[in-house]
Design goal:
Layout: H1 15-24, H2 31-42, E1 47-48, H3 49-53, H4 55-58, H5 65-78, E2 81-84, E3 92-95, E4 101-106, E5 112-116, H6 121-131, E6 142-144, H7 147-154, E7 158-162, E8 167-171
Parallel strand pairs: 4-6
Antiparallel strand pairs: 1-3, 2-3, 4-5, 7-8
Length: 179
């Protein structure tokens, strides 16, 4: 039987737990690091570095983007933060925790749903049994349609979606090109 992928993982109750871990690892707990952690602890789910740099989407003071990226990379190296890639957008960052989380992403509305990794064990087991691969959905999530968007598609509604710098619309289920 295949189990959810395991990686060294730390569990933090709050920012002060992270501060202790940083100091124990020989790092400094600087103001930019504190601000990045405050943003991650305040977020409802994975967020982009740009969102953190903008001060939680403009709700607090902005940070230097280069400093945010360096801090996120450092925290990821310590096992405090991890990143994932969803579709055509920027990488997203989230705090690690006691339980491994994996993600489902709607390719239409961009909704990101975190789930306990063990919930995907039956899928992982089938992929391994039928194809010989041990699937992981931590860095790249499973992409598809959420229930609401799947319902819209069945009803034949037109929808818009983005491909980085542009947005276009077409009827649900209509073949289209991104050339």
């Amino acid at each position: 039987m295949t189990h959810a992928p395991r990686s060294p993982r730390l569990e933090f109750e709050d920012i002060e737990d992270v501060a202790r871990a940083l100091r124990e690892a020989g790092g400094r707990f600087s103001l930019p690091r504190r601000r990045v952690l405050e943003a991650l602890f305040a977020a409802d789910g994975p967020v982009s570095a740009e969102y953190v740099a903008e001060g939680l989407g403009g709700r607090s003071a902005a940070l230097d983007p280069a400093s945010v990226y360096r801090t996120l990379e450092y925290l990821e190296g310590l096992g405090v933060v991890r990143h994932l890639h969803v579709g055509h957008g920027p990488g997203l960052y989230t705090l690690t925790g006691a339980a491994e989380r994996e993600y489902l992403v709607c390719e239409r509305c961009s909704r990101v749903t975190a789930i306990d990794a063990s919930a995907l064990n039956p899928v992982r087991e089938r992929i391994e049994r039928e194809f010989g691969y041990r699937a992981r959905f931590t860095h790249f999530p499973i992409v598809g349609l959420c229930a609401a968007c799947a319902g819209d598609e069945e009803e034949g509604h037109a929808y818009e979606h983005s491909h980085g710098h542009y947005v276009h619309a077409h009827e649900a289920g209509e073949p289209h090109s991104h050339a």
